[in-house]
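Long-time lurker. I teach an intro course on protein structure, and each term I like to show students one example going from raw sequence to a predicted 3D structure in token notation. This year I'd like something fresh instead of my usual example. Would anyone be willing to generate the tokens for the chain below so I can use it in lecture? Attribution to the forum is fine with me.
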Amino acid sequence: MRTCLTLVFLFLFSFSGFAGNHVHHNDDPLLKTFIENNQRIPDEVYQAELRNQPAWQNFMQNHGTWFVTFNEENAKPHRAYGKPIAMGNNGNEVNTAIDFINNHLKDFNVPVKELQLMSSIEGTKYHFVHFNQYHKNLEVLFTRSTIKLTFNNEVVMYSLDVYDDIDVNTVPSLNLVAAQASASSGVANVTAIEKGDLKILPIPSYRSNDYRLVYEIMVKNEDAHGIPAHYYTLVDAHTGDVLYRHNEVAHCSGGTDITCSGTVLEDGFFNPASVQGLPYLKMVENGNTHFADDAGDFNISITGNVNGNFTLE
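-- Reply from a regular --
Happy to contribute to a lecture. Here you go:
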């Protein structure tokens, strides 16, 4: 039995898997991140200060008992939940979510005009409406506002990981060719360079963000054994610095009995994380779709080397 270990973030992402008996995993010196502390816990004193601000106090006064953890970079609720808020009939869940943001969250200075619908998902008990943010028609990476609704049009949870203080020069100093050269610098045996879209990257700082204009680039290569790497890369569009590089190909060796687990915060930020199986995780390989069981185990029969996409949905 082999184990794939991944980290469950608060936003959704996917990664690729490569299974083969000859893969040897080593730390990749090409990887880079702009996150200085990925295990930071909320500052309880600052969280209390934010809860005492008029925006949250007014919300509580209007809607009863709710609980919140704030995003400390934008001073808006990262996750708020509580007594259901009846919204009436607004036609559909997307309209209801927009109405809730416009009429119940005004005190949080939500950049409503910059929100674009990402998805509307119907679960077994709730609707989940997700928006991401576009500033001056550029996607702001890793942003999300989510509204969770009952089937009776009641809001029971929301999040506001969006920003109203973005200040960045959106005219790049580097052209795409120069950015692609920076993205592929030091990467051997490059087979393809893809994408090249301009995005805005919020880099967390102390109770604020440092906003950067970046090129989003995918650099693909193969090592001497033919094992692929797909480097998702963010290049500063003004300086050429590589701010982020992540290999979307994850390597597993051995057979095809795979257990996927994640480090999760099951009971909120203030309680310890735990490693748990990821039930019903989706994997697609060569056009075939597989789902893990309720323990996070894949029991499939595959011979030879395959490329598999594992998606947290």
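Some talking points for your students: Helices lie at 44-51, 54-63, 93-104, 176-184. The mean pLDDT is 84.
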